[in-house]
Amino acid sequence: MLTVVHEENQAQQHVPAGVGGSLLDELVRDGARQMLAAALQAEVAAYIEAHADQLDTDGRRLVVRNGSHGARQVATAAGVVPVQQPRVNDKRIDEATGQRIRFSSAILPAWARKSPQVADVLPLLYLHGLSSGDFAPALEQFLGSAAGLSAATITRLTAQWQDEATTFGKRSLAGVDYVYVWVDGIHVKVRLDQDKICLLVMIGVRADGHKELIALADGYRESAESWADLLRDCKRRGMRAPVLAAGDGALGFWKAVRDVFPDTKEQRCWFHKTGNVLAALPKSAHPNAKKALAEIHQAQDKDHAITAAKAFAAEYGAKWPKAAAKITDDLDVLLAFYDYPAEHWIHLRTTNPIESTFATVRLRQRVTKGPGSRAAGIAMAFKLIEAAQHRWRTVNAPHLVALVRAGVPFTNGKQVERPDQSNTQPNAA
């Protein structure tokens, strides 16, 4: 962002006296409009191309362009500009929910009236698979035709972000206490001729209830060795053992955390588990199975959840024993969240903070022209999370996080009073 401001100041020095302010402002606004328009068109084109092979029974594409939305005024760093967003007609059905899939722009979400900063847009475009040669001309218009973001500037910014990601990965963790952590392995193909990058992502909740990125590393694979290397590195830099970790059961993380932080409790992600169970069932059974699974993890307490799990096993175990076993075999770690404050259950049941951050990136895995590097891809992912982090909310009832760290017991979401916490009043004199 500092580079942008510097070049804007240089541009203004070349504008004739007397017209500098208004002329440059107009160039900047028009450039911002063109930048957003080009970025939105490129985003939609990438989305449609990624699903070009999905056809209906008549051989027609299920994902196509469908005109444009009505124009709206969007506030940008260059002022208010008109934007007409392209429309996508996506006729696919989400098997997990049974609902129509809807395209959502990561650059300018529906109903947004304020654009992200340029520093946020660049890593998004990069991660979406656009080479610097593709989007540099559009970004060049941001400051007017006289002075823009050249390919060389993009390269310098990429190098700067790699340095920032490296510095972040070496920082001390001794002064921060992460009570809860979410972990996942995210596979993204970012302009590479190599295999997809496997990003090992750890996001934590501090003792004050705030969420933040703990670590982001290239695991090459989601193996226990890769996770163990990352956890040992975090421990060397001063990280305490989290109280609870939430993640997908397929991760090598669980073996690693037992070795590095053996006191950390385990919570399996219900989002991943639901997908695993449905994959073992015929599609005709999905609607009722999803309702039955929701009755387990949405139960009012652990006893009711266990009862619902037994009912699920009885209903589906005879015909589809593998599906039932995915619940019964992991029931303890699926229901671990019941031993923590009820206000935190919604946060602990899934790895949503990671899933939501990378949802749009996962849709764009088509390799485009131009070589890339793993370091650049990781740096762009780091910048994406860094940008998203500013919008993360604290967990519900943040004051309870410190109690969890202190070892205060909770049963079915309620704090268990110890003998020394009795409210008994002394007898009056």
From TrEMBL:
Q: Which UniProt keywords apply?
A: DNA recombination, DNA-binding, Transposable element, Transposition
Q: Does the keyword DNA-binding apply?
A: yes
Q: Does the keyword Transferase apply?
A: no
Tell me a Gene Ontology molecular-function term this record carries: transposase activity
Q: Name one GO biological process term.
A: DNA transposition
Concerning its family, UniProt says: Belongs to the transposase mutator family.
Function in brief = Required for the transposition of the insertion element.
Name of the protein in its database record: Mutator family transposase
What is the organism field in this record?
Propioniciclava tarda
Q: What is the lineage of its organism?
A: Bacteria, Bacillati, Actinomycetota, Actinomycetes, Propionibacteriales
